[in-house]
């Protein structure tokens, strides 16, 4: 097999800066009439279509798309404004039988789905890079290592809800799809040479067929610094403040962190300010915050303070599945030994195959198998468990034998005491 990591680190000529799209920066499509022309052009194009989307993470509420970029042979590059054209279902329908090429597809598919675009088949160049063993799989690194071009990545974190979008941003956006199909073709050949192309195609099919992600249960529990909050009443304060912030952010279409930081929420929960005057002295609630906002946050704290004990949240979420691995040695030493053996086997095989362990088999699947193994731990039974947890056939074929062996692992026994 070709070792992509070795290939990537071999001495190579300096990358060629890619400064402008081949046909220049296309106009932004922002009207139904202009969109109809784009739909017709891309329907008449040939080959795969490169697709990308820009969001305003950290600036706006949610993860909606604020710019969609496409490129296809025969159609050129298109930049579409989803604010002016919020329904792109006609474009999605025109490309329904076309392979879409995306980089880190799972990041863009939800926001594309919101505006009517969902591929039936796709090629994910980031995932392809992982499977091929490249150490850096960002778009810029992949284009540089595989194609020898340098992309300028200075505008990746800007506020894409800005209107009008500055020309340098549009140039950057157009260049993101300029070489995506070329990268796809090169990675397909690399995967074929390594004998991994079928693995990749199975992964791409699973991504395309997956339903949209479900809303998180108790998303407030992901507040940064939450581990510092121990008491149920304090946890209730975190929940009330998080929900109040989320509602305000949604109403104002602003990223929640720009209204109130996670650190401020945790501080308020730990300090438990009795009134607005004390609240205003806490970090994150300083003099720049108006009285109306302070009243809003204090009201949330007071609501948590007034909750009856039975309505306070539990310290941890309702957990379905095995306990955290750190607790296994105490709860079930035999299961802990199985997990240790399984992790070592997966790590060894992943190293031999030159791909990340989590792509060979997800850690959660390994934990669930080791905590609750089949009664008869044959390779066939283990394969059935892996399949039931969503493992693809290539993953099952590679890992079922080594995980079956790991299930037979026993914990070390303490030495017997010498006879008196």
UniProtKB/TrEMBL annotation:
All residue ranges annotated as the HRDC domain in the record: 231-311
Residues making up the signal peptide according to the UniProt record: none
Query: What Pfam families is this protein classified in?
Result: DNA_pol_A_exo1, DNA_pol_A_exoN, HRDC
Q: Which PROSITE patterns match?
A: HRDC
Q: What is this protein called?
A: HRDC domain-containing protein
Record region (Disordered): 1-23
SUPFAM superfamilies per the record? HRDC-like (SSF47819), Ribonuclease H-like (SSF53098)
Q: Which SMART domains match?
A: 35EXOc, HRDC
